[in-house]
Specification:
It is a single chain. The chain has helices at residues 2-11, 31-61, 79-83, 87-91. It is an all-alpha fold.
């Protein structure tokens, strides 16, 4: 039986599938695009420098921001934003 199956499998080959190709997408960068990117990079660096200056000033004066513990970390998003549910929906209260 195994010989018959192997002969049958050898004669019933599937046709090879040919992948369709498309032309590569051309991406063009203009000098305006580069300038906009550099401007955003500079603005981000200046914002970070201002934040560092503020933090060092707080550290020197010893007067920390009382709301600092309440601020979320930069990568954190509130659970409500992630799930799209309101507080009442999350805790199971219907009003």
């Amino acid at each position: 039986m195994s010989i018959i199956r192997s002969k049958r499998a050898a004669t019933q080959r599937r046709p090879e599938r040919i992948m369709l190709r498309r032309k590569p997408t051309a991406i063009t960068l203009t000098s305006e695009d580069v300038a906009a990117f550099e401007d955003s990079r500079i603005a981000k660096a200046q914002g970070a420098a201002a934040e560092n200056a503020r933090m060092s000033k707080d550290a020197q004066t010893g007067d920390p921001d009382p709301n600092d513990e309440l601020k979320p970390l930069p990568g954190d998003k509130s659970k409500a934003l992630r799930t799209g549910q309101s507080r009442d929906e999350r805790i199971g209260v219907s009003r």
